[in-house]
Specification:
Elements (H helix, E strand, L loop, with lengths): L7 H13 L2 H15 L7 E3 H9 L10 E3 H19 L10 E3 H8 L3 H9 L5 E5 L2 E7 H10 L1 H11 L3 H16 L4 H12 L3 H14 L15 H12 L4 H8 L3 H17 L9 H4 L4 H7 L21 H6 L7 H23 L8 H36 L6 H18 L8 H25 L6 H6 L7 H19 L4 H11 L10 H8 L3 H21 L7
Antiparallel strand pairs: 1-2, 3-5, 4-5
Length: about 550
Amino acid sequence: MHSDYLNPAIRQLRDQQIQSVPREQLLERVTQAEQLLTELEPAHTYLCGYICWRITSEQSNAYPDVQLTGREATHDLRLFVEDASEAANVVADAAREPVLTVETLARRFNVSTKTILRWRQQGLIGRRFVVDGRTRIGFLESSVNRFVERNRQRVERGTQFSQLSREERATIIDQAHHLARAGACPADVTGRLSRMMGRSPETIRSTIRQFDREHPEEAVFPENPGPLQAEAKRQIYQQHQRGASVDDLAKRFRRTRTSIYRIIAEVRAQRIMDLPLDYMPNDAFVRVRSKKMEDRIVAAMPDSPSPLKKIRVPKGLPPYLASLYEVPLLTREQEAHLFRKMNYLKYKARGLRATLDPCRPKRRVMDEIERLCDEAVSTKNQLIRANLRLVASIAKRHVGPAQNFFELVSDGNMSLMRAVEKFDYARGNKFSTYASWAIMKNFARTIPDEHRQRGRFCTSQAEIFTTMEDARTDQVELESSQAQRQVQVERILRCLDDRERTIIVRRFGLRRGEEPLTLKQIGAEVGVTKERIRQIEARAMTKLRTAAEAERIDVPG
């Protein structure tokens, strides 16, 4: 049953008739509704009681003062006719007069089925009949004749416009072949021929489709592309993000512009569904009822009540440690504000995401979710930067002869990031207390493991090594070497295509903050098998070795 009635009174009338009126009487009232439809004037206003009386021949006091415009009454009565006739369950062959389907009517007037659907919007009344075991829309012969009589010029114009001569069809197919061989996508072919021939895009499209179906060996578009795989959709999204136009993508992937837009929205929605939006719940979030309350939560961080003291940076520090002194520490109030803001932004983004339909995503909703998520990430980074000095301080106390200071700092930074996600500011504790506990707990777990690993390989000459001169380079030299190595890696990665580069980066964790992935994990991400990822990796590594030799970069054996 349809549910998009404009007036609840007509919907209630439909329900009453379907539930309480015998089948033959229901069909009579459908006929009376059809007759009323031919008399309605769009600019007039009608009382609901009058409409009910014309259909049922009975007075109704349910909606005595309700009025409908002619357009509203026409819309609702068309639905009434379709719903009531569907409930009557009439077989088309058993109707009192011939019943024409959409396809039959299109052939009679030599027009497209789309034209018939347009005529329905312009007054052609249809009922629902059982045709070949399925309920379909159909038109009584009398209803068709009545529409033709009232709209003779419209019908003649549609008939004349839709008649293609044999020469015109041949021209359309020849030009379509020429454009397709030149690389035009179906949408381009349809649009250009529509303008050139002075025909509707639907006429051009149906002509080409019919030719391809009847002559598959000479088809304009012989290859049916079928549904795109996940990897192709990901490529479309990524190339669009890098600036490729929708028109270029439509030509490259032989798709319509509409389908490209749909694929971009689909991939974007899936990425939004995968966003990490876990947050620490707080009752205050639920109580936000006004924009004023929300603005107070998401406002910029308040200034410190006392002027900031300039911190003197110790001399001789590596650049990374020196940069930590440029970020001021947070007060308790600033810290609480940032944690509340970050978690509220995630809470709101997650609520919006719950309303998002991945199959039909709304761009406005996706824009808002991404904006909230970006702001939450920015707030999180602000908290992390303000506490990096704490990590270095704790790492300094735990470093020993067997540990590398900057490795401890790296591990501590990871613990700090996790602590920011898990900290509940509403309990009133300072974050530095919670983060210190998390960082030291991680050090306590990892440092003994390193001692055990090294202890397995100790020999009788272990004391000799402890007395030998420390020939390790200083930290500045290590950082310089690492920076040079990163530049070299980025340079040789340019020899790979997009997919090979993505697989190598994900496989070896070459991006900051990313862990190396297994072949199976990468395969799941890009939508191919583990074996296919292994083959692509092997090919990419061969390219990289060749590029490294050309750049004169030492490659470990």
